[in-house]
Amino acid sequence: MLRFKGVFVLLFLVIATSCATRKDIAYMQDADNAKQSQLQNYEPTLKPDDLLSIIVSAETPEVTVPFNLPAIQGNYQVDNNQNGIKTYLIDNFGNIDFPVIGKVQLGGLTRTEAVNKLTRSVSEYITNPSINLRILNYKVSVLGEVSKPGSFTVPSERITLLEALSNAGDLTIYGKRNNILVIREAEGKKSFTRVDITNTDFVNSPYYYLSQNDVIVVEPNNTRVKSSSVGPNTTLYISVASILVTIATIVILR
Question: Residues near 130 by Cβ (< 8 Å), separated by ≥ 6?
């Protein structure tokens, strides 16, 4: 009887030690000992293929009509919301074709820099203009071992890596938390960076705040990889069966 109790204890220990640990799952594990980080002053940089909404306002709305062309040419009525305003796609050279002014290079500028540049140009025609600029197609994509993979529009033009993962329903239990891939395009080149969200240091990296069109890829851990061809539970069953056979063999030989 004591021999069988020993077998069950050994079996329990083997299974327990083969399970995932907190180190594999918990986020920002050193948060209790981490130093207070400085909040980053993040602002998106405009890029080719960004779709912009640009609305010019002034004390006298009528003078802004030439700058606020409707999406479809025809009758245009000025109101408080200025619905149906034309949008502007930044071309491969970083330019937009803005009414009255002509080509304006906005690619490579931050949102604030772009607003200031347009304000200076429009000021030659309107006194004290106000520019409202927004990126309409600001989005990020999350793929791999998350609950709801897909692309997500970001209305606020500011999103962190953790927020993007949250929008995707968080990582599954099979996702690698210490090896998340962030694919980013800047100045016509793609970069591939690995981020470890089990460590708080990543909040100070350039990849804590995401840029428009960033792609986040969560890799599967070894358990998911091994079970991909035989089903998620088969590997566990085989492991347990192997352990039982090994223990039984030891008991019989003794």
Answer: 56, 57, 58, 119
Residues listed for the chain: 254
CA distance 65 to 126: 11
Q: How far apart are the first and last CA of the chain?
A: 14
121-180 confidence digits (pLDDT tens) = 999 999 999 999 999 999 999 999 999 999 999 988 899 999 999 999 999 999 999 999
Q: Alpha-carbon distance 200 to 139, whole Å?
A: 25
Per-residue pLDDT of 165-189, as tens digits, reads 999 999 999 999 999 999 999 878 8
User: If you search the block for the tokens 């329903």, which residue do you land on?
Assistant: 169
Gap between the Cα atoms of 101 and 117, Å rounded: 12
Q: Residues 6 or more apart from 14 whose CB is under 8 A from it?
A: 243
Give pTM, 2 decimals.
0.71
Contact of 96 with 166, CB cutoff 8 Å: no
